Structures are given as structure tokens and as C-alpha cells.
Prior knowledge:
Elements: E1 2-8, E2 13-19, E3 24-28, H1 35-48, E4 51-56, H2 62-65, H3 68-75, E5 79-82, H4 86-95, E6 111-113, E7 119-121, E8 124-130, E9 139-143, E10 148-152, E11 155-156, E12 159-160, H5 170-181, E13 189-192, E14 198-199, H6 200-206
Parallel strand pairs: 3-4, 4-5, 5-6, 10-13
Antiparallel strand pairs: 1-2, 2-3, 7-8, 8-9, 9-10, 11-12, 13-14
Amino acid sequence: MTVSGFTFNAFSENTYLLHDATGQCVIIDPGCYEPAEQQVLRSFIEAQGLQVVLLLNTHCHIDHVFGNQFVLDTYQVPFLIHEADLSTLRSVPAYAPSYGFPKYNPAEPTGFLTPGEPIRFGETELEVRFAPGHAPGHVIFYHAPTSTVIGGDVLFQGSIGRTDLPGGDYATLIDSIKTQLLTLPDDTVVYPGHGPATTVSQERRSNPFLN
């Protein structure tokens, strides 16, 4: 499995494409808001000859969902989130204009993720892990064969997700990190929703919020 990342929008949000040798592709947290950003994503998919088969959100804060409807309009694929984040998703249109994003186009999921039930595409299987605290329905996606996690806004290099937004809770977030991320092998690469990738061992050793 290959991870391709793109940084979009004013929040410098990381959008990820997961794809394997079959050419099938999953889009996670499309943050592309402007047409130029949408074209970057579409052009990469076309250049690589990828077939988009699924849209996933780790969680549904505004910066991670800008491009949901664009992806649905362009590729007509299933769209899955954790059901506990449905209210988070549906709240975005109310505050998007005040954040300076009047052109936000809301999308509705076609189904829901269940932690413990794998996501499959091509030759790839992802484990869905429930990791609330930053958002009530936050999930992460773990690929054991490559020791890779798409972690959303749970754990960052040297930091953790904020917990002062609606549905956030600090103690819950720390518990999620300790039980859902720090239990993974040390060499696991964590691809976060913002900033550079890190590893489980690096954050266990040096993250000031975890020591």
C-alpha cells in the first residue's frame, strides 16, 4: 500500500490517498476547498491511473471535509464516517461562512464505520480503530503490513489534537492515544491531519503530553 499526501486549505490540512498495486484508491479527509486544490487531487489520480473506490473521514471538522462533495460528485463512491461524528459533520454549514468559507458544499455519508470491522480495497485491508477525544466520532485507520496509521487529529509530531472544540475531551483523547496508538509497534508511522509524519516510538519517547 502506498500513502500519497496533499496539504490543502488555510488550515494546512493533510489529505491522504491510499492505493495499492491494483490501482484502487481510497481518499481520506479531502480538504480541497478551492477549485485549484480540487484539480491537484484530480490530476494526481488521473496521472497515476487510479480508480477511486471509497471516501473516508477520520472525523468531520471543517478543514477535513471541504472536499467531500467534490469527491462524491466526481467519483460517485461510498462515503463513510463514524456515526458519532454525524452531528459534527452536519454542524459545519452553520459556521463555515463565519470562518471565511462561504462556498462550502455539504455532503451526507452513505454509511457508517464500525471499529473492528475492516475496510477493504484492492489487495489492502485497513483496521478501523475508535479514537475519540478530539472529536466524538474520531477514528484512525491502521495498515499492519506496512505499519502505517492515518491518524487524523489525534496525535501529532510533538503534540496532540486540541480538545476545546465541541465534543472534545482531554482525558478521553489521552486514553485514545495510549490505547489505540501507543499499543502499536514502535516503528508504526503516523500520518497526522496536520504537519509531518511521526512514529509511535518517537512520540512515546519525546511527546511532552504523554510523559
